Description:
Elements: E1 3-10, E2 13-19, E3 66-69, E4 80-84, E5 95-98, H1 113-125, E6 130-136, H2 137-140, H3 151-162, E7 166-172, H4 190-198, E8 203-205, E9 211-216, H5 231-245, H6 247-251, E10 257-260, H7 292-304, H8 338-365, E11 372-377, H9 390-395, H10 407-414, E12 419-422, H11 440-453, E13 458-461, H12 469-479, E14 497-499, H13 504-507, H14 509-522, H15 551-555, H16 576-584
Parallel strand pairs: 5-6, 5-14, 6-7, 7-10, 10-11, 11-12, 12-13, 13-14
Antiparallel strand pairs: 1-2, 1-3, 2-4, 8-9
Helix pairs in contact: 5-8, 8-10, 12-14, 14-16
Amino acid sequence: MENVVxxxxxxxxxxxxxxxxxRYNLQHGISRRYGAICVERARKPRTTHCFFKSDCGHLKKxxxxxxxxxAETAESKEQIHTSYxxxxxxxxxxVYVMLPLGVVTNDNVLQDSAGLKxxxxxxxxxxxxxxxxxxxxxxVESKGPQQYDWSAYRTLFKLxxxxxxxxxxxxxxxxxxxxxxxxxxxxxPKWVLEIGELDPNIFYTNNKGIRNKECISLxxxxxxxxxxxxxxxxxxxxxxxxxENMKDFLESELMIxxxxxxxxxxxxxxxxxxxxxxxxxxxxxxxxCYDKYLKDDFKEAATREGHPEWELPDNVGELNDAPxxxxxxxxxxxYLTKKGKFFLTWYSNKLLIHGDEILDKANSVFLGCKVKLAxxxxxxxxxxxxxxxxxxxxxxxxxxxxxxxYRPIARMLSRxxxxxNFTCLEMRNHEQPIEARSGAQELVQQVLSGCWMxxxxxAGENALARYDSEAYNQILLNARPNGISKWGPPKLxxxxxxxxxxxxxxLQQTNFDIFKAFVRKMHAxxxxxxxxxxxxxxxxxxxxxxxxxxLEVLLEATKPVKPYAWNPDDNHGTLDEIYDCxxxxxxxxxxx
Length: 592
């Protein structure tokens, strides 16, 4: 179904005329039902909305442009006129706040709901658009295969809804604990770990034979080792049960997007740097492909290439080595040889295929729901300015000065119309120790530019909790690299930003006053807007993913391209003056 939208500037507002030809007739049924403990059903919206979509999630702002969009309407097919009073809403970037990792306990209980309700009300009063929360596999399916208990999360979602906030749930198929910022320990389901006791090769393994139990290895993605199911089937069944048991919340449009966990910390990467295994910043990490399944896969791939004698690398050094101390990563090291390039291509391609297959299943599960899918990519900023980019390579990002390791991921995500969620938005190079050779600013610029070039929506997070104006200013710059546009969507704008994390420290008066000023700046100095359509976030029923993109086409995106320019002096605004007023106990400037 198609309809034509004519957009034209009308004074200080944008007037959009919609001519509807027909309406959707979607089926929301699910083929299977799973037993679950339920609480009160979510409210459905009382009003009828219209939904639109363009290729990049934005309407073009040229005068008189005609854009083909898709829409869902009520019974009436009459012409509808919508006027946006403030075109600066097109520069509005919604802000979400991550809830504490243990907001639902290991015993599947919502912790301190009364206290959380008060905190959510404070966030809402500050203009925060919503919250992000991990929905832990290790909690929901802890009792046994396909024994799901969503009760605590239903209570949580209802609380978020009652506080008039939106929600970004994360399908967290990984362990919590062992990494930077992990304050609680939530393991994988016990029955999964028991299978791992019998076959430890289901876990990622380094060249020393040390297993990592943060998540299941992608090497067994399609192996029916889990009571007859494969890991991809485990994830699919979990998401299907989520949809069935959260159907009322989905229909009420509480959720904006659903982030699908694809690896450790929910990120599409290998667990190459894990603190509880001895990793210390800025170590190179270790390749995680020495379990028998990935070993066999590599041997088969090398044999097809005509080199059956090739083995996985054994000269990669130790976890916390510097690149130059290893034969693999040093100048003119193995990573530059034919064998090294073949290995790195295989290693990174396995990650691409893994993410693509899981998102394909997620798309089939949430088909017809008015949400987007999202996937998170790690911000491996240390050693970015070394020739070998060693820390990125061990994580699975084959990124070098003359090879883009991120744009192929963006291209893969584009067929699912997913949002790429990137981290370390707050970091600046000079804040890191010299030996880290950090390129956080260049990395963010590279990844975001690549996403926009692939016509992909991109969201972001801060990697570490920060409460200072320098960090907020850097996030503001990355959110709108060319500043605010007064006449429609800016050329470059992030889809959303998730702040890490809700805590007593964030809500401390001084910190919270600065945070509130930051939220308003992200909102283009406008008040909180409860209607996402007004800032060009058009919610449409999820469609089938586009046809699978051949691997060779994905890899065409490895060709480096010049990133877009970041213009820090443009009118995105900073918090420096506000910060000084808060710290010194002075009144805010009149313009604020």
